[in-house]
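Summary for the funding panel

The consortium committed to producing paired sequence-structure records for every protein in the target list. Below we show the first two records in order, beginning with the earlier of the two.
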Amino acid sequence: MRISRSLPMLALLLPLIAFAADIPKDLEPLPEAPPPPAGMEGENPEPEVTITKKGADTIEEYRINGELYMMKVTPATGVPYYLTKDDQNAGWARSEGVGAPISIPKWVLFRF
C-alpha cells in the first residue's frame, strides 16, 4: 500500500532530480553582443505596417525598405488571410494562416 502511494511521487520527482544533476557548477555569464555590421547601422529591421480600410475590409500592408512584401486582409465576415509576394515578376500567393507557403518552381524553359 505504501509503495503504491510513493510510486507516483517518485515518477514526478525523478525528472526534476535528473534536470538538476545536469547543470554544471562553473557557469559564467555570456559576453555582450557585438555591434551590428557597418552597413546595417542605419537600417530598421522591423517592417513598416500601414493599415487601411476598404469598405468593411481591413488591409494591413507590410513593407521593409519601402518594398511591399506581404498583406493581411481581414474581411468583415470570414477568416483573415495573407497575400505574400512569390518573387519579383509574379503576382501574389494567398495563404490561410501561419503555415509555410508552398513554393512552386518557375523555370524559364523557352523564350520566343
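The next record, for a separate protein in the list, is shown here:
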Amino acid sequence: MNHPSTPTDDALVLYGQRFDSRLLLGTARYPSPASLQAAVQRARPAMLTAALRRQGSIEQGRNFWAMLKEMQVPVLPNTAGCHSVQEAITTSHMAREVFGTPWIKLEVIGDDYTLQPDTLNLVAAAEQLIRDGFYVLPYCTEDLVLCQRLVDVGCQAIMPWAAPIGTGRGPANPYAMQTLRQRLSVPMLVDAGLGLPSHACQVMEWGFDGVLLNTAVAQAADPVTMAGAFADAVAAGRAAHRAGAMQPRESAQPSTPVLGTPFWHHAQEA
C-alpha cells in the first residue's frame, strides 16, 4: 500500500470522490433533532445516512429533509427495510429522485431478527444498481466470498458488518475481518455492530478505511460527546495504521537505555 507523504493527503476516496472524514453517521434514534445537529457538527462526518422510508407525517418528513440539507453534509440514502431485490432497486430509484444523488447504501435484509444481509440476493441487487448508474455501498457480512462477488460485479467499496446492527458488541469475528482486509484492496467501511470508540479505533488499526455509526452515538447518554469520541478514535486508528505498529513479541525486551550501568558497578566495587 502506498502511503501519502502527509496527513492532509490521506483523504477517503469512494467512486473517485474525496472525503476529508472517514466517519459516516446515521440519522435515526437521536433524542432530538437538536442533538443530531450538534453531533454532526462535532463529528464532521463524510456523509449522513437516511432511509427513504421514514415514519411520521408528511410535514415531519419535510422538516427532516430540510434539516439535513441545512447541515450541508452529503446524504447517503439507504434501502433499510427492503427484503427483496426488486424492492431495493425500486427504493434506490425513488431515493435518487428525492435526494438528487446517485449514492446508495444498499441493504437487502434476509433475517428480521438479526437484520443479517440477504447474502443470496445482495449481489444481484448491487449488479443491477451499478448498471443503473448508482454508486453502490453494499451492507454485507464479513464473508470473503460474498465481498469478492460484490467487487466482481462493480462495487468499488463495500460495507461489512462487525456484528449485527445495534448490538454494540464490536468485531465478533476478528480473524474473518482481518482476512477480508488483507485479501481485498477496495475501500471497506465497517458498518454495524460497533459500540465503543475503541472498537472503531481497532478496525481502523487493522486497515479498514472508515466506519459508519448510528446507535452507538444516537443512544449514548451524551450523543454529542460520543460523536466526538468516535471521530477522534477513527482518526487515531487511521494514524496508527499508517504509522505501522510494532510486531508483538513472545518475550520481554528492555526499552529503557542502560548506558552508564557498568560505571555504577565499578563504583560499587571500589
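Regarding this second record: Residues 1-7 have pLDDT under 50 and may be disordered. The chain has one domain: 20-244.
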